[in-house]
Structure formats: C-alpha cells, structure tokens
Amino acid sequence: MAIAQDTTLNVATDPSFVPFEMMDQETGEMVGFDMDIIQEISDRAGFDYNLRTMDFNGIIPAVQTGNVDIAIAGITITDERGEIVDFSDPYYDSGLKLLVNMDDDSIQAIEDLEGKSVGTKIGSTSYDYLQENLGDSADITPYPGTSDMYMALLGGSVDAVFYDAPNVGYFSQTKGEGKVKTVGPLYEGQQYGLAIAKGSDWVEPINEALATMKEDGTYDEIHAKWFGSSSSEE
After folding, report:
1. What distances in angstroms separate CA 123 from CA 55, 73, 76, 131, 143, one per listed residue?
2. What pLDDT band is residue 231 in, cutting at 50, 70 and 90?
3. How far is 85 from 75, CA to CA, in rounded Å?
4. Are 210 and 89 in contact (CB under 8 A)?
5. Are 71 and 86 in contact (CB under 8 A)?
6. Measuring CA to CA, which of 19, 47, 57, 184 is 20 to 30 A from 69?
C-alpha cells in the first residue's frame, strides 16, 4: 500500500484549534485529536512527516501551491475548497454552534443575534454562514484566533460566539466552565477531511488508513480520549 517507506511529507496544521490541535506548554509539542489521527495515518500509510503550523487562512493555499503535501486542521470539506485541493474521506462530523454567557437567556438561535454583536474566526465557514444569514443585521466581528474570540465574549465585547461545535464545546467545558454555555441547534452539519495536494498519490493510502482505523477500533479510542465518548454514540 505504501508508496515509499522513506517518504517524508510536509503536513500543515493550525497552531490552536482545541481539542484538535494545540501546543502542549510543557513539552512544546503539538497535541490533540488531529495530531493523534495524523500520527496513526502516517504509520499505516507508510510516510514520515514534518509538521508545520500556520494560520488557518494560509493552510488551503499552502496545499494548493504545493508548499505542503497534506493539511489536517479541522478542515471542513466544501465544494469550493474541493476545486483546489483533494480531500480524504471524512473523519469527523461537525457543525456550527452558538456560545453565550451563562446568564444570557436572550440568545437561543441565530435569529436572536439581530442587532447584537457576534464573534467568529477569520476565514472560517462560521464567518461565511453569519454573513449569508445575518448580513448587516448583526455586528459580525472576525477574530484571528479562537482565544481572542472567547476572551471578547467573556469580556463583554461581543454578545455571542459562533464557531465549530467541538471547539466551542471544549471551551465551555474547560476555561469557560461556569461562565459560558452553548445554545440552540447544530448548524450546517459538516464533515472534516484531510486536505491533500490535487492529484496526489496519497489520497488512496490515507483513505485506506482511515478505514482500517475505524474497523479495528483505533479511531474510537482516539475519539474517546479527546471528546470523552466514542464517535458511534453521538
């Protein structure tokens, strides 16, 4: 299955998309759900890799231009992105979720954001969704990083945050515990995939690795480690 056992590929990720990828402050290593997934895929598909972190905005262009071979960063599979990069089979089901302060009962759905301010992340599908569905009826503020966006909510600069459900959920259970809560439905059911250089020979080996990981239970083990439950229970 492997193309060459001694191949080293360049893999891009986002420096902070918890719990998918984040810096372990003690070791200086990148850790997270995606980091465990790419490690397992590389072992099974037969390649080594150099991990490079970059702003999410630059990740798809880096794959498109061939500066990196693969990217794993909670990347939503979209038709638009699929025109410039190849995607692996989906490896995570996600969507978009609203986060508000614990004592705020006025916001229960996207429609409730009219006349209010909402923070999201630059270049994300959540930003696109807000623009399409709210446009000028809400004050949409894009932030470069998720921590800035969450600090804005805690500090009262924005009334809500709208972003990828697993990231929002993780924040509400960790640093935001007791201060913020998720509300409303899951918007835009989405799936994450690995972005791979267009026409790459690695698409098939990566998909085979993902399939075997799901079959033998390895995927569920990694999922439970980071999200506390097996993927099949959600």
Report:
1. 10, 13, 12, 12, 9
2. very low
3. 12
4. yes
5. no
6. 19
Task: Give tens-digit pLDDT for 53-75.
Answer: 999 999 999 999 999 999 999 99
Q: What DSSP letter does each residue of the chain carry, written as one string?
A: --S-TT-EEEEEE-S-BTTTBEE-TTT--EESHHHHHHHHHHHHHT-EEEEEE--HHHHHHHHHHTS-SEE-SSPBP-HHHHTTSEE-S--EEEEEEEEEETT--S-SSGGGGTTSEEEEETTSHHHHHHHHHTGGGSEEEEESSHHHHHHHHHTTSSSEEEEEHHHHHHHHHTTTTTTEEEEEEEEEEEEE--EE-TT-TTHHHHHHHHHHHHHTTHHHHHHHHHHSS-GGG-
Rounded to two decimals, the pTM is 0.73
